[in-house]
Amino acid sequence: MGQQYRVAVLPIVSARGLTKKFDDFEAVRGIDFEIARGEAFGFLGPNGAGKSSTMRMIGCVSPVTSGTLRLFDLDPATSGKEIRARMGVVPQQDNLDSELTVFDNLVVYGRYFDIPRAECKSRARELLDFVQLSDRADSRVEPLSGGMKRRLTIARSLINQPELLLLDEPTTGLDPQARHILWDRLYRLKQQGVTLVLTTHYMDEAEQLCDRLVVMDGGRIVAEGSPRELIAQHSTREVLELRFPAGTNAERARSVTDLGERHEILPDRILVYADDGESVLHEVHARGLSPESALVRRSTLEDVFLRLTGRSLVD
Amino acid sequence: MSQETLVWRVVPPILRHSRRAHRMIERSFYVNKLSWMIVVSGFFEPLFYLFSIRIGFGSLVGDIEFAGRSVSYAQFVAPALMASSAMNGAVYDSTMNVYFKLRHARLYDGVLATPMSSKDVAVGEIGWALTRGTLYSIVFLGCLIALGLTDSWTVVLAVPACLLLGAAFASVGMAATTYMRSWEDFDWVQTIVLPLFLFSATFYPLSSYGVWGWVVQISPLYHGVALVRAACLGIATWGIAVHVAYLAALTVVGLTIAARRVDTLLCK
Ligand SMILES: Nc1ncnc2c1ncn2[C@@H]1O[C@H](COP(=O)(O)OP(=O)(O)O)[C@@H](O)[C@H]1O
Ligand SMILES: [Mg+2]
User: Fold this and answer.
1) pLDDT-based confidence at residue B207 (cuts at 50, 70, 90)
2) Does the beta-carbon distance from A112 to B30 stay under 8 Å?
């Protein structure tokens, strides 16, 4: 039943062989993806993976170099205006109007969409409430904290009641509390039926927010699925993290290579992948290896990324 | 074909595709609603100018022969000052102001994520420069009349003349701004504007430039001064059509380049 539903409804975004070139440099190298209405879809990848370039093409502010891209079954090259009218955008870098107050930022932005002024004002009040900035309505933008600016940018992106919301690294650079407030607001939007498309290099963010995601690296999609599927496919259930005294990692690693399903040697620790981490740890101790610290944890998307690319997500 | 499309067909493409430009002007109203004092203070500038020539030049320099009649020097120079003031306002609003929003405030990045286009941005920003310029022109006009520096009803046409002159300078100014890479580049603006101000038949008639007259005629300000002067002194010649055409052409070319450049810079 659910499957049938998905086939019957057109995807809100679909891309085939989507490519972006800057002069000779290929930032996005022929990627395919489909985003369903109501879904929270993520692009996970390190800096330079091509996430923002992809988002800007979806946002119809950056022309597609080759391949096809369709939004709402429209072509960005010919229907950019119509598409942008139905979309909200939170860019990687805030670009709030520094010459206007917080409240006027929302009202004026609404006017760009030809929304009647009275309607803009009532939506602005509601949205400031939604992002908990009502008490700063008459403030200028500059004195706001990073988290507040981000929330205001999100409020601004909602002024046209978009069906599709693009968020490029919505929480990068924010403290944990500010991130949690943002996640909560995004979760509510999703419940209201807004399709969310976001990029992030935080695996916890992807796990929290995304129904489905693609892992990007070097302009390509290297894996796709729900966070749980990706972990099941590309990692084990658990991971044992071992730390040995500085400089002895490589040497000690030789004694554990036969343990678990596979292992990764990082500069500061060794990761041993196994479905049952505790029993591996038991074996480590039985062999008389005494790590400075040992931790058994569940696999995360970070492990998936490491597996797929051989590199960490955040450096 | 409906009447609306017929009308739009005779309008240059840049204006046909910028039907939301007024939203940009609206934004500027929001920005300036708290700073009306700055706008009002601009009103005093023309008054000071005109007083100085009335009292100063007016008494030192006698009447001069212009377009077959004798006019006081103050009457001759006042229209040129009105035109220059329109030029300065338009240049300021379309260069420094636009540069800040384009490169520092990243204002237009946000605007272009909405149904607004780069053409709306270009036409809208120039529209704002002209809105403000027109206010100043009207005040200038009031001063001209109050100080008895004009005697023809056609003087009201000085306002649309300044509007056209402002449009030409704002469009070319904005186009040039999109090529600027740092604040230092704005020294060039002064380097160009000052000689224009001094050598556009502002202070002496075209005939006194002798063989260099053709250089003067390249200056857009020359054409603006000629228009405003014609309005103030009630002179009607075929030359007016040439001045209008020259300034209108500059406007369309400037606007088109500005919009295209905003697009290349921001929609990569
Ligand atoms: N406007 C541009 N001109 C030239 N290169 C660019 C431009 N924008 C991005 N790039 C390059 O494209 C690559 C991908 O960038 P980006 O899409 O911003 O990645 P991400 O958002 O995943 O960090 C990077 O190597 C970046 O330097
Ligand atoms: Mg990015």
Assistant:
1) confident
2) no
